[in-house]
């Protein structure tokens, strides 16, 4: 993904940190704040982005996710909010080496992850996600084909 677009989303998150935690400007560093999915979502909406309703997953890390989109540019951002920084740090330690060495990503279909405190971000575009979705549908629909690429007849 384009680094400047990722930086602009990163700037939005950093400005949200200041908006959502104004007391952090004093003696407390911003990175010590634990962000909430609802607070981040509201901040993105207030900055003019579209944001889906957060979903809390039943996974071992209890991550909450939501998608943010910028209709003007077609950019899509997946926001992952972990319950605390320790959980996020543990996940980041597993994910970042995989992202550096291969095409594996924190979120399938999205670019490299960026982390801040208990939040991870991954960016894509609506066009890329649509193309990947269509390609996956094509692969899924190939399951009924024989090895030579011809449709197998259904049993009578």
Would you give an account of this structure?
By secondary structure, the protein is α+β, with helices and mostly antiparallel strands. It has one domain (3-137). It is 39% helix and 19% strand. It is built from four helices and six strands; from the N terminus they run H-H-E-E-E-E-H-E-E-H. Strands 1, 2, 3, 4, 5 and 6 form a six-stranded antiparallel sheet that branches. A hairpin with a 7-residue loop joins strand 2 (55-56) and strand 3 (64-70). Residues 17-31 have low confidence and may be disordered.
What is the tally of helical segments? 4
Q: Low-confidence runs (pLDDT<50, min 5 residues)?
A: 17-31
What is the H-and-E element order? Answer: HHEEEEHEEH
- The radius of gyration computed from the alpha-carbon positions, rounded to a whole number of angstroms, is 19 Å
- First-last Cα distance: 50 Å
Please provide the count of β strands: 6
Q: Kindly estimate the percentage of residues that lie in beta strands according to DSSP.
A: 15-25%
Helix content: 25-40%
Shape: globular
Structural class: alpha+beta
How many discrete structural domains? 1
Q: Profile the largest sheet.
A: 6 strands, antiparallel
Give the integer mean of the pLDDT values: 78
